[in-house]
Design a protein that fits this description.
The chain is mainly alpha-helical. It is 67% helix and 5% strand. It contains three helices and three strands; from the N terminus they run H-E-E-H-E-H. A three-stranded antiparallel sheet has the order 2-1-3. A hairpin with a 5-residue loop joins strand 1 and strand 2. It is elongated. The protein starts with a helix and ends in a 7-residue tail after the last helix. One of its GO terms (biological process) is protein ubiquitination. This is U-box domain-containing protein. Pfam families: U-box. One of its GO terms (molecular function) is ubiquitin-protein transferase activity.
Length: 166
């Protein structure tokens, strides 16, 4: 029994030390958990901001896509929206200045390679009108965005101690 008692007594002493070590480890684990929780919170705040920024960028890209000109409005040579479209005898439309330059260099229709002269060109009034309507609609869609940007700049300017107008 004496030996058993020693074992028990020794076990209690060791158990006491182990209990203190376990408490210290538990405290460290709790601290670590708190740190992980705090970092997760700060990360989630950053992630939310990033998601909001991504959503804003996607919305802006969608607006830009909406503002892309319909293919018939784009000159096939310059790849720019036409302002003064003209029609060739072959039925293709071009920006007047662009096709005139083409005719001066080489008097051929760029699409059909048939002879083409300046006198063969006819104004494409219907296409010109559609392009003008599209430009007006696009400008109306962009105006509220520009107003918002001006308002935001004014708010920032006022927050910086300015009057609120530039």
């Amino acid at each position: 029994m004496g030996q058993e008692g020693g074992r028990v007594g020794g076990g209690e002493e060791e158990g006491g030390e182990e209990g203190e070590e376990e408490e210290g480890e538990d405290a460290e684990e709790e601290e670590e958990k708190k740190l992980h929780a705090l970092s997760a919170l700060s990360m989630s705040g950053n992630e939310e901001e990033e998601e909001e920024e991504d959503a804003a960028e996607e919305e802006e890209e969608e607006r830009e896509d909406d503002d892309e000109a319909p293919e018939p409005f784009v000159d096939p040579l310059s790849m720019e929206v036409m302002r003064d479209p003209v029609l060739t005898p072959s039925g293709y439309s071009y920006e007047r200045a662009v096709i005139l330059e083409q005719i001066r260099r080489r008097a051929l229709d760029p699409m059909t390679q048939e002879p083409l002269q300046e006198t063969d060109l006819r104004p494409n009034r219907a296409l010109r009108e559609m392009i003008e309507i599209w430009r007006c609609q696009r400008q109306r869609r962009q105006q509220p965005l520009q107003d918002e940007e001006k308002a935001e700049k004014g708010t920032v300017h006022a927050a910086e101690g300015g009057v609120g107008r530039e």
